Every structure is written in C-alpha cells, then in structure tokens.
C-alpha cells in the first residue's frame, strides 16, 4: 500500500481529455515554489490550521496517546508520540485537523479509478499518476496499477520530475501513453539552489526516455527569478534539439503561490516568498521562441 493525498476527478490540466489524477505522497525534490507541500514527505502527517484554533482543548482530551498538551491556551503536538489514530481529527469542533495521506492497495485504487471510465472513453482521457513523485514509489506497486489500467484499456499518463533511477522508467514504459516531464532550469547550480539537487540525472533520463520512444510532453514551471528569462529558454530549446527530442506539446506554467498557505499547517517554511511569475508579454515571448524553433504546440498553462 502507498500513501495518497488526493484523487482528483475531472481534471483537464494533467494530460489529454478528462482525467482522474492521483497524487502520491513523497518526493525527492524540494522546489522552493512547491504548491503541494503535503506531498513532499513520504509518511502520513497531521495538517493543523492553528490560526482557526479556538483553544477549546477537545483534541487534548480525546488523544489516547497523550501526544497533545495545552500550552498558553493552544494545543501542542508531540509528533514523536502521535500515532496518527485520527481521534483529534474526528473530534475537533472546528474541523481544522486533518491527517494527510491515505493508504490504498492496488485493488482499492484501481476500483476507484475505474468509476470514471465512461468519462475517459467519451473525452479521450484517462488516468494521471502524479505526486509528489509517483516514480519514487515502489516500482512493483506502480507497475501493477499500470498493467491493470492497460488491461482495461485506460490510457495512463505519468507526471514526473525525472529524478529517479532510469530502471524505474524502463519497467513502466510499455504501459504509459504519455509522460509529463518537468524541465525546471538548465543551469545545474541554479537547479541545486532552488530545487535541492542538480539536474544531471533528470536530463539524462529525459534523453533516454526519448531514445526509447516515449511520448513526452515537456512542462516548464516558469519563475522570473529562476528560469523565466530568454537565456534559460534558449538553452532548453538547444538541449531538446541537440538530443533530437520532439515533444508533441510544451507547456510553460507560470509561477503561482496558491499553495503557500498550506506550509504553516504542516509546520513547514515557504521559501518562495520572493518569487514571481513573468508578465504576460514575457511569457508570450518565451512561447514564440519555442514556436520559432519548431515546437509548434507550445502554450502557456497546462
């Protein structure tokens, strides 16, 4: 079983047609602009909106492991003691405690995904496995899902950052219709600064996937201070052309901070406060660079 934070129905931004997107919990990267911080850690955890807490102490009273205590009129959680039993979530009068991450067996997950089969068929859609980083999950688990979806003639898209051993891609490649592949920034030092690792493995895997015949959509989260400039876009184009990579689609995804409010609920720091999206004219100029280079299906947004 693997932890999943969300199963999003009727998604139109994670591949072709109407899709059901599955967000797995756990990622090897730490992008400063990550808008799904609840998917970064692999383990289940409690999300708590302290700003809405009335300090009633109900959670402290119902906690069987005494992981919660009151301090200065507010509940304080000892994560080392907490067993994630869910009682504080269930009994909180304000509904501001939530356990993030639910375990699914392969059978349970496929059953849930197949509820929307009629929408896949009518729209040319299917299932997208995302994250966090789906490719960082146990390969046998993901492979079992992929095989069952293929058996039931449901198309599969994998949304990936590419930072995993290539053997994982080799195993699942026969069952994947499209990869949504993030190319965040070409400069390896900038990549390490803003994302936590350099981009060597990511770019190597992209080349190998293309050589092995994968259908790949390139997705570029576009941040003014990181990669939202002509130099980076030209370097990205040059890399794709040098390695004979011909994506049917390129998506430039403008930075947004809609996930920043989640960080304090998870006792995490949001590091993207000084980041911005390029303006509309800049984004359009980046699109034109790709179009002029022969990547005709380049668009802003997913």
Spatial sequence of strands, sheet with the most strands: 7-1-2-8-9-10-11-12-13
Quantity of strands, as a count: 13
> Low-confidence runs (pLDDT<50, min 5 residues)?
none
- Helix and strand sequence: EEEHEEHEEHHEHEHEHHEHEHE
Give the integer mean of the pLDDT values: 96
What Rg do the Cα atoms give?
21 Å
Individual helix count:
10
How far is the N terminus from the C terminus?
Answer: 30 Å
- The secondary-structure class comes to alpha/beta
Strand content: 15-25%
Task: Give a description of the structure.
With 302 residues, the protein is of the alpha/beta class. Helices cover 30% and strands 22% of the residues. The chain is built from 10 helices and 13 strands. The chain has helices at residues 58-62, 87-91, 106-113, 117-123, 139-151, 166-172, 188-195, 200-211, 230-242, 280-292; strands spanning 2-11, 19-24, 45-48, 68-71, 74-77, 97-100, 102-104, 126-130, 155-160, 178-182, 216-222, 249-254, 298-300. The chain has a 9-stranded mixed sheet with strand order 7-1-2-8-9-10-11-12-13. It is globular and about 65 Å long. The mean pLDDT is 96.
Which structural traits does this protein have?
302 residues, alpha/beta, single chain, 22% strand, globular
Brief digest:
The chain is an alpha/beta fold and 302 residues long. It has helices spanning 58-62, 87-91, 106-113, 117-123, 139-151, 166-172, 188-195, 200-211, 230-242, 280-292, and strands spanning 2-11, 19-24, 45-48, 68-71, 74-77, 97-100, 102-104, 126-130, 155-160, 178-182, 216-222, 249-254, 298-300.
């Amino acid at each position: 079983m693997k932890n999943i934070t969300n199963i999003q129905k009727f998604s139109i931004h994670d591949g072709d047609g109407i899709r059901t997107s599955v967000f797995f919990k756990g990622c090897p990267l730490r992008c400063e602009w990550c808008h799904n911080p609840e998917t970064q850690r692999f383990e289940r955890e409690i999300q708590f909106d302290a700003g809405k807490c009335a300090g009633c102490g109900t959670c402290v009273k119902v906690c069987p492991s005494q992981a919660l205590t009151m301090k200065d009129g507010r509940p304080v959680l000892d994560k080392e003691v907490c067993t994630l039993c869910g009682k504080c979530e269930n009994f909180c009068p304000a509904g501001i405690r939530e356990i993030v991450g639910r375990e699914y067996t392969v059978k349970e997950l496929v059953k849930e995904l197949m509820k929307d089969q009629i929408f896949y068929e009518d729209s040319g859609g299917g299932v997208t496995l995302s994250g966090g980083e789906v490719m960082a999950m146990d390969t046998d688990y993901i492979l079992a899902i992929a095989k069952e979806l293929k058996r039931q003639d449901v198309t599969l898209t994998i949304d990936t950052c590419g930072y995993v051993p290539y053997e994982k891609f080799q195993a699942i490649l026969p069952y994947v219709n499209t990869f949504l592949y993030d190319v965040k920034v070409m400069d390896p030092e900038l990549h390490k600064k803003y994302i936590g690792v350099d981009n060597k493995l990511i770019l190597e895997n992209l080349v190998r996937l293309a050589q092995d015949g994968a259908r790949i959509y390139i997705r570029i989260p576009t941040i003014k201070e990181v990669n939202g400039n002509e130099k980076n876009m030209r370097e990205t184009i040059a890399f794709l052309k040098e390695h004979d990579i011909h994506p049917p689609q390129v998506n430039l995804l403008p930075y947004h901070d809609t996930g920043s409010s989640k960080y304090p609920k998870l006792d995490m720091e949001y590091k993207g406060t000084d980041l911005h999206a390029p303006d509309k004219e800049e984004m359009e100029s980046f699109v034109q660079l790709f179009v002029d280079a022969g990547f005709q299906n380049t668009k802003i947004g997913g």
